[in-house]
Amino acid sequence: MKRFWREVAIAAGDSGFAVTLDGKPVRTGRGEPLVVAHAALAQDIAAEWRGQGEKLDPATMPLTRIAGAAIDRDAADRAAVIDRVAAFAGTDLICYRANSPSALAQRQATQWQPLIDWAAGQFGARLHVVDAIAPCPQPPAALATLREAVNVFDDLRLAALEAAVMAAGSLIIGLALAEGRLDADEAAAMSQLDELFQAERWGDDPDAVRSREERRQTLAAAAAVFAAAGT
């Protein structure tokens, strides 16, 4: 889609702050005005639109996607999202450790184990850790506890959590970002630990770098939502 607007602005109203393009509100996928309750968040969303070039690039607009998803979500959608996000605890990235090389195994243990311990203390959910790629069944009580931790998020913060978890491949990293245990760069580094290790050893390529940066931007957008909406 080509850029069709000249001016991006914020319009304050009774229901919140709308992002407008040449005076007309940005619309969600379902045609609803994109209105958020927090002025700082509206400004960040507006910045995404101002930063577009001649062609609209949705990959560079994670805040717009998150806000739109929250606005468009109904009760049935919400239940499905909670199930989908909570399910990551069953195969969480940070629960699966390498046997070799030893340097990777040590890096995983040093960086990931504190998050396992944090989740146990923060939510009372102790997940099992294995040094294998085969699925490891997690304690049902821990999974139920983590699902309840997801369920308490309001629609906006749930949309941000969903985006973070999908980008990170880890519910624990997503929750740590939401709770302020990690910032966006730390969450990206944690979730990309294996990729970065391999890049250090064998070199990198532009597609991999671009993919990691897009995921980092998504995590940064989620962190901005958590900061604006409160945790």
Keywords:
single chain, 231 residues, alpha+beta, ATP12-like, ATP12-like fold, 2 domains, 4-stranded antiparallel beta sheet, 10 helices
Produce the secondary structure layout.
Blueprint: E1 8-13, E2 16-21, E3 24-25, E4 35-36, H1 39-50, H2 62-72, H3 75-86, H4 102-123, H5 140-151, H6 155-168, H7 171-178, H8 184-191, H9 193-202, H10 206-229
Antiparallel strand pairs: 1-2, 2-3, 2-4
Query: The CATH topology of the largest domain is what?
Result: ATP12-like fold
For the sheet with most strands, the description reads: 4 strands, antiparallel
Model regions low in confidence, pLDDT < 50 over at least 5 residues: none
SSE arrangement, N to C: EEEEHHHHHHHHHH
